[in-house]
Amino acid sequence: MMRKMSAYARKLRRTSETYNAAEWLNTLTKCRPFGEDKLPGAIATETSFDAMRRRIIETRLSFERIKLGTATPEDFDLLAHATGIAKVRYAQIAGNDNEAVMQLDIADAALTRTVNRFKQSGRWGFDGPALIEVMQGIDLYEQVATSSSPAQMEHASIERTRILEEQLRAMQ
Question: How far apart are CA 157 and CA 172, in angstroms?
Answer without folding.
Answer: 23
